[in-house]
Amino acid sequence: MHLTFILPIALAGLTAALPAALQTQTITDDIIWGVSNFTLGCSQGGCVFRYDISGRANAMTPKFRTHCTGISEKKVLCDDKNITTIVSPAGWSEGNPEWTVDVTHTWKSYLSDKSLATWFQHGTKNVTVPDHKPVQFVMKPTQEYGFA
């Protein structure tokens, strides 16, 4: 057999084994993430952040409430391992450092055909921490995707 005959058949088999991308609208107006007690302190060893975050449920998205802590510019798992975050410097605003807070919420659910899907919602918010005091803010996921 020739490679030109075998290669398309082999590639077709691989394509069938790849996860399928899913399209849906899980981000609705009621999906807002509340962040509280956001603090950030820096020393020669780097900047350490801490915060609590919670999200409401809707028909497609489970609720969550967790605590996140880590060193800036490194992706970390929060206490609820379905939430990951990265906090990175973003510049200065009115004499205070500004930080980009990146959050991803991951969960699994069954589709109507009983296959298991993994979903992701991702949101980013720029935050200023004046005088190193804890701040509260809300953020909204802006991206969603999934695969089964």
3D structure, described in words:
The protein is mainly β and 148 residues long. It has one domain (21-147). Helix content is 10%, strand content 55%. The chain has one helix and ten strands; from the N terminus they run αββββββββββ. A six-stranded antiparallel β-sheet has the order 1-10-8-7-6-5, with no helix packed on it. A four-stranded antiparallel β-sheet has the order 4-3-2-9, with no helix packed on it. Keywords: Signal. Residues 1-17 form the signal peptide.
Task: Outline the secondary-structure elements.
Layout: H1 3-17, E1 21-22, E2 33-43, E3 46-55, E4 64-71, E5 76-77, E6 83-93, E7 96-110, E8 116-128, E9 135-139, E10 143-147
Terminal Cα separation, in Å?
Answer: 35 Å
Q: Mean of the pLDDT scores? A: 84
Classify the helix fraction into a percent range.
Answer: 10-25%
- Strand arrangement in the largest pleated sheet: 1-10-8-7-6-5
Q: Give the helices and strands as they follow along the chain.
A: HEEEEEEEEEE
Uncertain regions: pLDDT < 50 for 5+ in a row? 5-18
Q: Count of DSSP helices?
A: 1
How many discrete domains? 1
- Principal-axes shape call: elongated
Secondary-structure-based class equals mainly beta
- What's the assembly state of these chains? single chain
Number of DSSP E strands: 10
